[in-house]
Structures are given as C-alpha cells and as structure tokens.
Fold each of these.
Amino acid sequence: MPSAPLLLSQAFNGLALGTLLALVASGLTIILGTLGVLNFAHGALFMLGAYAMYVVTAQTGSYFLGILVGAVFMLVVGVVLERGLVRLFYGRPHEDQILVTFGAGIVIVEAVRAIFGANTQSVPTPSWGQGIVQLGFLFYPTYRLELIGIVAALLFALYLILYRTSIGLVVRAGIEDARMVGILGINVRRAFLLVFAIGVVAAGVSGMLYAPIVSVEPDMGSSFLVEAFVVIVIGGLGSYPGAVLGGLIAGEIISITSAFNAAYSEVMLYAVMALLLVLRPQGLFGSEGRV
Amino acid sequence: MINRSDAAGLRRRQLLQLGAGAAGGLMLPGLGTALAAEAPLGTWPAGTTGDSVFVGVTSPLTGAYSADGKDHVLGYELAFAEINEGGANAQAWGLKGKGVLGKMIRHGIADSELKANVAVQAQTQFIQRDKAIMITGCVSSATAVALEELAQRDHVLNMVGASGANATTGHDCQRYGFRSQPSAYMACKALAPVVAQHYGRGKKVAYLVPDYNYGHSVFNAFSEFTKPYGWTTAAQVVIPLSASDYSSALLNIANSGADVFVNIEFAAQAVNSTKQAAQFGIFKKMQMIVPNISSFQAQETGAQLMQGVFGTMDWYWTLEDRFPLSKNFVTAFRARNHYIPNWGAHIGYLQTYLWALAVERAGTFYPPAVIKTLEASKANPFNSTLGKVWYRAEDHQLVRPVPVVVAKAPKAMKSKDDYFDIVDMVPGEQAISPPALLGCKLGPYV
Amino acid sequence: MRARFWPEAAMVAVLLLAPLVLPRLGFSYDLLQRILDWGLIGLGFDLLFGATGLLSFGQAAFFGTGGFVAAYLLLHHVLSSVWLALALGTLAAGLFGLAVGWLAVRRIGIYFAMITLAFGQMAYFLENSPLAAYTGGENGLPGVPVPMLGSYKIAAGMPMYWALAVIFLAGFVLARRILHSPFGAVLRAIKGNTARTGMTGHSVPAYKLAVFVIAALYAGLAGGLLGVFQSYMPPEAFSLDTSGQLVVQTVIGGVGTLVGPLLGATIWLWLRDNLQQVPHIGALWKLILGLIFVALVVMLKRGIAGEIRWAFSRRRLASAEAGVPEEAGEAAVMPPEAAALPMQAPLVVARADAPALRAIGLSKFYGGLHAVEGVSFDVRTGSIHAVIGPNGAGKSTLFKMLTDEVSPTSGDVLLFGQRVTGLGPTHTAQLGIGKSNQLNQLFLDLTVTENLRIAALARARGTFRADLWRAADSIAPVERQVAAAMDTVGLTHRADVPVHVLPYGEKRRLEIGIALAIGPNVLLLDEPLAGMSPAERVATRALVREIGRTRTLVVVEHDMDAIFELAERITVLYEGRLLADGTPEEIQRNQAVQDAYLGGLHEHEPA
C-alpha cells in the first residue's frame, strides 16, 4: 500500500495530467460532435503543434511568440485540411472519414520525419516556468503547475467560444441536429470549416504547451491520440464538458494506478473505459445514437 | 573432389574436418569448391552461384527508435561499400580482394517499424525472393529473438543486433545467431564495480523499468551485481510501453528516498524520461545511472543534464584513439555521412566485417562451415574496432571489451561531439556470464 | 446453378495461379501466405463489417488470442498436434468474441467501434504485462512448430502456401455460404435497416452476436496460422495497428465483397515491400504509401472490388429496368383473388371467440407530456378497424404500443387474449402482429424479393437460427409466401429490382407487403395512403380491402373517405384520450366527434 503523501501527490498529478488530456481531447470531441468526423489525424496535429513551437522557439527564443505563430500556423493547417480533404467526406460513411484522417495522419508524421529527421528535439522551458515548487506534501515542477492554470484558462476560453458566441450556438446546435441547422439556413459549410479549424488549433496548442515537458519527435502524438479517444468515450462522444471531465478522470486513473503499479496504468484505463461503456454506453455526458 | 552422390553420407565427417580446418586457420580456397557438393541448405548454394551474394537488413526507419535505426543502417552500408571496394580499410581487417570470396555484396534494407512481425516478414521475403545468404539488423530484443528463430528455421546466418537482452544469447539463443553487443548481464557486471567504487557502498536505488524483456533483464542484472556492494532496491517502477508522460512514475521515484536513479528506458524514451526527471528535481536528490546509454541520448538530452551519468555502451567514437580500425571507421563514416557514428552504426559495421572475415576464413558461404569458423574463433581471435574479439562457442556471444563511460561536464568537452570519458574497458572474459547460466541451448547445424 | 459457383471456381483458379504468376512480381511464398492470412481474418471481418455494418476496431484481440493460445499449447507441450492446437486457439478466440460481443453488440455506430477498440487495446496491454509469463510479453512466442499431414511435414515455403490456400478456400466457401444463407440475408437486412429487421421478428442482438463470434473465429484461426507459418507468434498480433491495417486493407479492396480484404492485402503488402526497395527511398516509403492511401480513399468510394462489382451491377440494373414495362396505372396493382398466404401460422393462434386485439387502459407519458392516456378498445377478429384523430392525437404512439415498439407507461395489450406488452416488437411480430409504418422502413439496397424474404424468413425460422449452410432461397414455404405477398401488393414485375430505384407508390406498397409477408393474424397499417397520388390511392384502398378479407386489420389514416368506406369500426382519439368508439354510422352521428374533430378537419387537414 502506497503512503498517504504519495497517494496525495499522485491525486494532484492526476489533476495536472487530466487538464492536459482534457485540452487534447477537446479538439477531438468538438470536431466529432459537430462534423461527425472521428479525426484520426489528431495525434499528428498535436505533434505538428509541438514542432511549430520547436521551430519558432529555436529561431526567436520566445515562448509566447511560439504559441502565437504556432496557433496561426495550425489555423492555416486546419483550413487547408478541411477545404482540401475532410470536406469531401461529410457525406460518406464513418469508416471512410476515419480512414482518410488516418491516412492524413501518416502523411503528416512521415513528412515531419523527412524534414526534421527522427531525432528528438527540445523546446526549452520558459524562464518563468523553471524550477520546482514545494507544495507541502510534494515537490512539483513549476511549469507543470503553471500549465494547470494556462490549460484551465484555455478550456474556459473554449467554453466561452462554444457557449457564448453565435458560432458556438451553431456548433452546439449542430451537435444536436446537423440537418436542422442546415434547414434553418445557417451557413453550415462555413461553420464546419471554423469548427474543424478550432479543433485543429486546440490539438496544436496542446502540443505546443506540452513541448517543453516531453521530447518532441515525429511519433509523439500516437499515444496521446489513443488516450484522447479514451477520454472522449468516457466523457461522451462530442460532448465538450464530457471531454473536460473525462480528461480529469483519465488523468486520475493513470496517476492513482501508478501509485500502486505503474505497469498497470494503461490496462486500468481501458478496463474502466470498457466498464463504463457497458454500464453507461453513451458516456457521462453523451447521448447514444446521435453519433 | 567429392562425388556428388556421396555428399550426404560424407557430410558429418566432412564437417568435422572442416571445423578442425577452420580452427587451425588452414582453409584453402580450393576446398570451398569441393563443398559445393554438400546438399543444399537454406539459401545455399542457390544464393551464392552468381557473382554476388545478398544480405538482408532490417531496422526501424519509422516509428520509435527510428533515429537509432537510421544510424544502424548507415553502418551496414559503409561496411558493404568498403568490402565491395576492397580498398585499404577492408584490407586492414584482413579481407582479400573485392567483395567476400570475390563476390560482391548486394543488400536490401527494410523498415521493421520496430515490430518483430514486420521484421520477420521482410527478412523472409529477402530469404525467399533474394536468396539472402545472411540476415542482420534490428534495434530491439523482441525482433532479435524472432529473427534468430527465423534464421535457425531457414538455415540462414543471422548477425544479431542491436540487442541487449540476455535472452538473445541465453534462453532464446540459436545456432544460426551471433550477437556482438554486450548482453545486459555483461554491461551491468562491467558497470557495477565502477559505480560502486565511485558512489560508495550501501546506496538505495530507484529503477525506471520499461515493461519489456530488455528492461527486466537490465533490472535483474544491475540489482544482482550491485548487491555485493550493499546496494538495495528502493523502488522498481515498471512503466507500460510507449509511455510519454512520466510524471506519475517519477513521483513514485521522487518519493522512494533513493540515492541513485537507474534509468533503463531507451532512445527517445530515455531522453524524454531524463528531461522529465530533471523537471521533477530528481537529480537534486539522486545520481542517474544508465546501464546502456542510447546512441543519441547525450546529444538529445544535452550535456548539462547528462554530466556525471555513468553507463556502458557498445562502442564510443573516441575509441579511435585506441584502435586503428575504429579510427578508420570514424574517418570513413564522417566522410560519407557528415556526422560522427554512434554505436548503432558500429554494430552494423562490426558485424558485417566479422561475418565477411569468417566466410573468407571458412572459404565458403556454406552456413555450417561459417558457424563452425565463428565458434572456433577463440583460438584465432578477430582483430576489430574493439581490439581482439571472438565468439563463445557455447552461446555465440561476442567476447569483447565493455566500455564503461561517464558523461562529461559541458566545459570539459573538447568538441561538440565529445560527451563521454571512457572510464574503463572491462575485458570480455571478465564481464561475460558463465556459459550455462542464461540457459542457452544451441540448435542443430543442419 | 452453374453461375452461382463461379466465384468459388475463380478463387480456386487464383489460388492455383498465384504461385506461378506473382513470384515474378516479387512475391515470395511467405508474402503469399501472409496475404492469405490477412484474407482469412478479412473474411470474418467482412461478414461483420461489410455484410452486417458493424465496424470493429478490435479484431486484433481475437487474432492474438487464437495465435497465442495455439502457440502456448504447442510450445508447452500440452498438445502435439498443430491442427488440434489451431482448433483450440480458434475456439478460445470465439469464446473471447462471445464475451466481448455480449457487451458490444447492443451499441451502435462509433460506440461499437470504440468499445471494440477498447477491448482490443486492453487485450494488447494484458498480453504485454500481466500475462507476460504465458505470452512471452513483448518477445512473443518463438519456435511454433509446423503441422504434419500424416508423416509429411508441411514445411515453410511452398507446402505451407498450399496448406494456407486450402484453409483459405474452405473459409471462403463457408463465408459465401453464410452470406447467401437465410442467416446471411438477415445480416444484410440488419445493415440495411436494423429497426425494421427487428420489427419483422428477427432477434437483431442474437444475429449481431453470432456474426461477431464468427468474425472472432475467423480471426482466431488466422492468428493461429500466423504463428505456425512463420514459426513465431508476435505480440504485435494484438496491437491496434493490426486492427487498423485490417480495416485499411478491407476498405481499399472493397467492403462487402469478401475478396476485398484479400485484394487489399495483396496491394498493401506489395506496395509496402516494393516501395522500400526503390533505391534511396529509405524511410520515405511510408510517406509515399500514406499519400497513395489517401488518394485511394478519396477516389474509390467502394474499394477496388466494390467499384468493379458496382460497374457490373449498374449495367445489369440498366438492362433489367429496360426490360420491365412501366407501371400501367391501376391494372398492374389490382389485387388477385386469393390473398391467403401459405405460410405456417403465427405463434398465437387466431380465435374467433376472443377479440383479435384488445387495448386496456393504455397510457404513455413522456415526462409531463401525456401522449396517450387511458385508451381502451377492442378489435374484433376479422374486422377492419380504423383509428382516427387529428394530428398530435397520439395515434402513432398508440400504434407503437400495440406492437410494443414503445413500452406503455401503464396498461396492457392482449392478442387473442394473450398479453404481449413488454415483449418488444420482435416477439410481437413472431406472435402475429404485423405493422407497416407511416414512413417507409425498407431495405433499400436489397431487391423486392429479398425485402419480402426477410419478413417471410422471420415467420419460418423464429427469432434466431444459425442456418449457415443452406441457401436463402431454398425454403419452399418461404418462397411461396414471398411470391404470394408480392402478388398481393402487385410488385411481381419488380421482383429483382433494388428497392432504392422504385417509385414512391411502389415503395409504399412494399412497405405493406413486408408487414404482410411476416404472415400476421393482425396487421397494423399506419397511414397506408400517405403521399400517394389519387390513382394509387384507389388501388391501395382495394388492396387494403382485399387483405382485410383474410385477416384482422387496424388502420390509421387521414383519408376520411377511405376510412368510412373500409372500416367496420372506428376508434377516435383526441389529445391522447379516447373520444369515441363505434361503427362508422355511430361515429358520423357522434356530436362530440363532430365538434372536436370532424368539424375542424375540413378547414385544417390537408388530406
């Protein structure tokens, strides 16, 4: 049995891990909910964001410039991807959508490997994120601690966009009934483009924020993609609050299990997901049959 | 000359003679022709009838470890080019003329994607389609074990590696597999006295163990060899494959009260876990030891974080100061690829040459003859990039010195590539396990 | 019959010619074996995904289970017969499939894909860590022996190719039999319209579970063979990549064609292998393959085999349509004299002494909304009974409660005195209540004959039967029933036309025909005349009257002329409550009905 301080530490770490997972999953769930497209390229876009961060910080040394330029870059990537590829698939079956994004993911990863090589790259922790903070029962890296706040702010901003703007209204209406939105004469195509771009930027920004913590390499996105799937299944496919809560739950499962035996953290995550799907198949906030 | 129809009946006796001949280094080129009367075995003689022979190489070029995989492949390509050219470098190893036994080496390279199944698929294709006479290359122990099995089944020689797990020349060893990299056992046995002397007795150790065969091999070996010095295990944190966020694992380690942190992760994951360990302040409390330091670990992690880290490596480029063949290798590799080779490249380079030398000594590509020659190399060691080396007949592990290194502080580096001091070259005989310990039972020759 | 076996004959030819032709293109025997192995797991997957429409991302779980169980049994000398080990491995995969399927098949769409993905990933991590002592963890199990045939050892290379070719061929023949069996017909119906399949009396979850297990058995056998033919059981068998590659290859090759996965594997493995051998391409092979893949998915909507089949079927369809005379007004739809169907009787026997259908205090509340409240009425055996009421009166909800599509909040429905409430629409159909819907619920990709056959099969075979081997059209009573129902609704001249090309009026009649073909004693028709032209209305009224001669009918309809002409008794609903119940004359005289409903009808009702 792990000690109480360790369990407390892991519970806290689960929160930090969870907020990041929530941000990664939020982009995935918005796109799925509105467009009905399960974006298998999400992990690759996460990685692309991290590389954008790497390139800009290596040139300028500025963290904020990295986020800014990176976000604009991801916006462009999102628009190009939607206009050039995803748009062709709105009327086609789920499996075609899954496959084309899956293919796009491979292309993005391998293009990055061809350009930057397979070696890992480093993005420096910003000066204000250096060091460790003593939190009573645990020491925690300053940047990770700050990241909880940054991610929370971003999630809140996304909440404002989704729940307090007219585009958000269309997005949420689209989640309820895409056909209805079309009938109402709202320009669904433009809304879809916007939603896809927002989802891509969310994926990219997650990668940018994560870049100083992990090694930046072409395959870094794959494990996040699968974990993001788990998160949105737990939370309910297409549900934004579901992604946030699901992220926190997944973070806690991984962290608390690690206190006992880290080797079982992944098994535990999937076991909980499977159990939930059996007991409450639509996820915590979802409604089955819609997606 | 031996009559073809008598070949089968003569095989046993002939092999005995052959073994004796190889051991004595008395093989004559003429005898190779005589052996063409042997019953066909694997890709022999079909793969050797033309003016060239084929070597199949698999290595991860995409996915995890692909940086190491690319380096690995460049080592092979350099060796193939040198041997085919038959220039000064090949002659320095003792090869004669162009190619091997006068035959050019053709090769195919396939991406294993770090999947054993894909590697087996690609090598089987090389064997069946291209009549590969030798297969080689991998950057994972799972792949090594799978390819050894394939080599044994299809009677094609396999120069195994890179692979550090004990099983490669232990429980899963094969008659047709030869490994040049030090096993986890050898690495840890060489490393333990050095770190014990440096850090003192009675240390508490926290381990970060990737949950695969190699990870457990290293954990078992390191904890065993440091036990005599009073070192104890404070935490053994086993983490799933493909982990990318180590925070929860590192919290366990930070809370373990250990003095020493042994990081067994490999390649990108080693870099990743090291960076995150620094963020969690682990290095303020603990010294890191990496029993097997990955090729690009120092470069990617940075000297600032790596300084003071002890570990072992298959080879390091500054060995060029000690061994002329290493000097040749580094010089030629730099000229060709514009960077300094890492040990992944070295394994490809070394194994290709050792195979070529054995074939020339045996005077034939006939696999049992080449195997016997390699098994008999103790009596007549090969001169190599690591000095005198030979394969142990009982388990096909290369008996070779193990470099124990420590990472330099940034200001002590003489050049941008000068990350390590070689603390010790522990002789192979001293580091290697007793022959039967790891459970190797070699299979049949034919 | 000769035409029916040409795919099998073609497959034999392909398997015989492959080792002669393909090596010239750089395929080794090993590569051919791998293609067959992918093709084998693909047969089961295509039955699951292509035929039934269930996209699984977890086939690796069964592939791995079959492989590791077989390999473990052989390597630990529990068994010495490779064949027996393969059989047990396959069985183990089937059992695992049964467990996962039990939990998964009630989920639909992406949820189904995700739950299978979750179990697949869980199996992968279980293999790697907790079960490493048995599976070798990430090393897998090397040294799997090859099988013997008597005293002949089936060695790697050509002998192993022939062994795999024979096994694949057996799997292919079986899969084709399954696809063209009554069981397979139901699978295709589930893909076409899951709800209607259940409403005709087939137990949809049972069929889904059965096909899930069949797919798992195929995967298990393929997994076992993987270990055998390469002497090594790799842990990647369990990985998500394996499931993903299967989906990729199936989609490239063509979904629902059975040969699609084989074709996809051939192309994928060949490209993968050969791209790498192009000089200086190195790691770029994957980028190029990725681009090719995206282009294929964008351009080919049906996969390669699917596009070819589509091109053929389009030509056939065009010629079929050219040969059929256009519907010639009323004449074509005049009902024949005898509408009595030859089928066996439903489970509940019609009795003249009890009301055919009896609603007792039926209520349905949605939260605070009282859609139907306390409605009771009797439907006399052999009568045509109408339910009318303005829009929103609760007619459709009431109808759905009669077949138990919607569970009543309170109250009961009795069929010839037997309670049917709570049984669900599948069982009420089996008991003898048929229903045609307000909105057509057809199997659009199937022909008229096949549509009716789905319904007739439910009566003949009950809620579930795994008759995998016989042909779907080989059950004589079913075929007579189909012919009779088709004749009754006047669609015989359209027998082999896919339903999606039918004009609306014919679709509407087919909707009734399906309800009729289940052989019900009581038939519920929900607005049978909705959306029809005046000429079609006349014909359909005649049809309803004709059907009413042999069975009890309950009709919801807005067309008052039709109702008062056809119905012997009329129940009037108003705002969810029963307003009146009586003969047409009584209803016409009823002041409350006139005030509340009929008075307003002519002003507001478009019908």
Amino acid sequence: MDNEQNKLVENHELLLEMYREMLRARRIDERMWILNRSGQIPFVVSCQGQEVSQVAAAFALDKDQDYALPYYRDLGVVLHFGMTTKELMLQAYGKADDPNSGGRQMPNHFGQKKNRIVTGSSPVTTQVPHAAGFALASKMEKKQAVSFVTMGEGSTNQGDFHEGLNYAAVQKLPVIFMVENNKYAISVPLNKQIACAKISDRALGYGMEGITVDGDDPFAVYKAVDEARKRALHHEGPTLIETVSNRLTGHSSDDNHLMYRTEEELDEAKEKDGIIQFKEYLKEQQILTDEKETEMEAEIKQEINEATEYAENASYADVTTLAHYVYSQEEAK
Amino acid sequence: MAVLTYIQAITQAMKEEMQQNEKVFVLGEDVGVKGGVFKATEGLIEEFGEERVIDTPLAESAIAGVGIGAAMYGMRPVAEMQFADFIMPAVNQIISEAAKIRYRSNNDWHCPIVIRAPYGGGVHGGLYHSQSVEAVFANQPGLKIVMPSSPSDAKGLLKAAIRDEDPVLFFEHKRGYRLLKEDVSEADDILPIGQAAVKKEGSDVTIITYGLCVHFAQQAAEKLESEGVTTEILDLRTVYPLDQEAIIAAASKTGKVLLVTEDNKEGSIISEVSAIINEHCLFDLDAPVRRLAAPEVPAMPFAPNLEKEFMMNPEKIERELRDLASF
C-alpha cells in the first residue's frame, strides 16, 4: 500500500463519506425500482453493483475542475459531482425541473453544466470522443483539469471507443477512460463480446497505460483513478482503467435477466456486493458503528422520501415548450 | 477589395476568425502541414501553430466527436471532413450528438461547431469523391446546412457559421474552389445564415437552386436573356432550415418555377422546396413546378462520359428553362 492509499485508509471521515454516497446511490436506485414496479415511473436503468467503482473513482477526482462524462449507470458519479436526490427523482419522473433535460430524455441520461456533468445520449460510446474534446480544450486553455469518461464494457467494441482512445493517446490528452465491466452487454456475456483476456489489454495498442482493478474494492479504484489523474496532469497522457464488478439487476426495468443468468450466479454476485464488503470493512475497523449506520440509513430514507414526494407533485414541462431550444435564442415559434 | 477564388475566400474567413477569437481552431486530416488536400487551410499552421491547426488521425467520427466535445467546453472548432463522401462515419456524432445537444439538455449545453466538407462532382472523382450529401442531414432539427455559391458568400457565411451558437454543416463545391472568383470585400462582413438571396432579377421564369448550380443557372439564364426571357434566380444559400419566405416570394413572382440540384431527385432539398411552393403558391403558379436533378443512381461514375451524363450543367438547365418559359 502506498502513501496515497494509506492516507485514504487513515482518513475515516472521507471513508464514511464515500460509504454514505454509495449507500445513497443504492437506496435511490432501489426506490426507483419500487416506483417503477408500482407504475409510478416508466423506466429504470440501474447502478446496483457498480456504486463502489463509481463513488471511489469520483472521490479521486477534483469535482470543481474536472469534467465528468458519465454513462447511464453512473448514479454514484453524478451524486458526487453535485446532482441532488431531488434532481434525480425529477429526472426519473421526467418533470420540468429535471436539470438534465427538463423531462426530455429518458432517465439516467445525465447532464448538468453547473456541476461539470456533460450531457449524454442513448447511442453508447459517443461520449468517448467528447471526453477527448474536453481534454483538448482544457489543455489548450492550460487548465489543471482532466476529463473523466465512463462506459460499460460493451462500449469498448464501438468505433468511437477506438477513435476516441487513439486520438487522446496520440495527443497525450488529460483523459481518464474508465470501463465499468459488469460482464454483460444487456444479455451478451463477456466471452461473446471480446476475445482478449482483459479490457485493459486494449490500452497497449493505443500506447497508453491500462489497468484492471476489482471494482468492488474502493481502495484499488481510488488509487487507479488518482494515479491516472496525476499522469494526465503531468502531460503523460490518458489511462484506460477497467473496474470489474457485477450487475445486480437486469439491464433495465424492461429486461428479465433470469432469461440469461442463473440464480446461482446472481446469488454469488450479491455475496460479492462491494457495498456490503465495504460496510463490513468499516465495521471491523470500527469506523462505522451500528448506531451510525442506522442514523445514516434513516437520513437517506428521509431524503429520498422527500425527493420522491416533491418529484411526484412537480409539473411536467408545458406542451407549449415542445419547440423550445432547438436552436439558440427564442425559438418558440 | 481583392479578387479571391472560392477556396481563398474560405481560407480568408477562417484566418480572420482565428485572428479575432483565440477559441477558434481547425482540425482534420491533412489540414496542418499540408494545408489540406485542396489547400483550404493553407498557411494557417504557419500563422497559428499546430495547437490551433491540428492534423488528426484518419478517423472522421473522432474529428467530429472531439470537435463536439471542445465546442461544448466553449471552444469554436472548425472541423474539416476531407470529402463530404467521407462524412458517413461521423453521422452518429453529427445527428445523435451535435444536432440534439441543446434540445436534449433543455438549453443547458450547446454545441457551436462548424463541420466543413467539399462536396459535388465534375472533377473525375467517381462515386466516392463526388457526392452531394446534404439531403442526409436536411431533416435534423438542430442542424444548419450552408452551401455557398460564390466567393463573397462563402466568406461571409463561413464567418457567420463560426460565430453561430449552433452546429453548422458547411458544404463547399470542390469544382467551385478554383472555378469561381470575384472581388471579395476585405471588411469583416457577416452574411446571415438562414436567408436565401436573389442572385438575378427576372420576370418570366424562376430558378431556385444552391451551390455550384447557381453558377450554371446564371449561365443558362444569360443565354435566354437575348431571346427576351428574363429569369429570377434565388440562391437558397442555407439549405436547412429553408428560407420559406424567400422561396414563396420568388415562386410567386413569375409563376413558373424550375428547381435545380446536382443531387438525385427523390428526397432532395428541391423536393422540400417544391412542397413549400405547393403549400403556399397554388394561385400564383402558371405551370407545374419542375425539378431538374441527377438520375436515381447511387453516385456519379468515374468514366468521363458517364460523369457528364450524371452531372448538372448549364445546357441541361437551359433546355428545361426554355421549355418551361414556353409553357
């Protein structure tokens, strides 16, 4: 364990904060499923099983300088960058005050300029060249900022993955590419997606650093992102990080993953759940007490209850706004 | 005033915008040291350095996508696609991303990128160095498509495109690059995107067209002038979104309308122009609207006789014009 990791291990306040953020992401996501299954919201696409990677990575970034280009599972990333529980509920309901899109996009299509979260779409991997573009611009403007872009492992087969990584590597741009490998592209397992042993093996072909870490281990993820950030800011180019974890739900609320996964596999994945492992670690180390945990859960529950009620009662965008913001100025014709 | 070719006017526009705004930069294949395969970016790397005149890897989706990222950040990228035919790998970035960024983020983010590309045939370019691709993009709200017909328009419209707050596709006719020349103002003139221009006044027949075909239409109209037939020529300049008012005015003025494009007919820009005229000008028309376009084949062939058969020219326009005038 090196210095940075030691610092993290000893910073109990920060560890508790990280745990709280992971737990908050998980509980928000769980609430969204309940709302979906009870007919309140039409769609959920889940972060469950990847919160540890997302939150640990985000904590290693400078959210006041860096840009996040998240993908649809990155609830943990956007929470850390400043999106609130209330805002997340507004987007789940598609309400007018959703800061991501005002109810225009499906849930989890994140974007919030004031928090440096770059708007994304549904065709996967288009954000990868954008991340190189943000890094190019911040390098031109001599800013101490990196762009942090995430995607699922399925996205690493897209052309934009290759074009974006190659571009960033050639120009030594300050980008961190983080692949959240949950071993499935909807129903297609890893062995039908790639022929190489690890996603990070692909880094070699681009001439950049590549590393695979256990996505359920917050210390390993934090360290990988922290080192990648330093490398980026020292003009040593981008890094490809692969975090390996498990998807604990179907691809989305419209997918029954038991069609292509066994109960045994799922049980095993749940046992390895990074949030539970981290909680056990914090308890063993007496950083987290039962009392503190109960208090944390209660606070989060109350926050989610309030956010849900607020979002449920909030208004949809008025239909007269349908044609707004196609172009700049007042295009409300 | 100085006489500039169409391509010199384009270079001049980029140069002036780069001098005025340090956020403007260009990127694309061969745009740096070589100055572009057509020399549109000639001299820019010497003046602005390789940080602002970027030779990119051969990867069109990255050229567009990196530009889009930089534009969202707040820069003013001018991306070059070496040929319009090669824009296809970047279509997802242009249509799914650039066109929708403002709308999908409810005005939180926007994407002021310019993507330039040489289009059009008549240069022995075969199927993949000759295409007109504007119709591919011309039903994507959020995009603007500019296709200038003269050096002055090219300069004023490219400067406007670079200053525009939204993504602009800027298609330049490659045969026009050195064919078209005229006095171009050295002033910082900006031409408004979205406005068509009457290039010639006339009272008997109206031609509505854009790009290099404006030049061909002018030649055809001159021929008929001596026979007492005068032609109104409307240059669309921005082919998406269309300037409906100008189209309606030009069509109504003579009641006989010939629409011309180098692209093939079905689903083309002029088909949309025809629809606008049909919706608005029924009682002003004296003849059915005519569309003169390329045949319904994928793209123009390489062999000179086949290319000529496909390609628009003044003679084809003259023939249609004469026929329509006598209707």
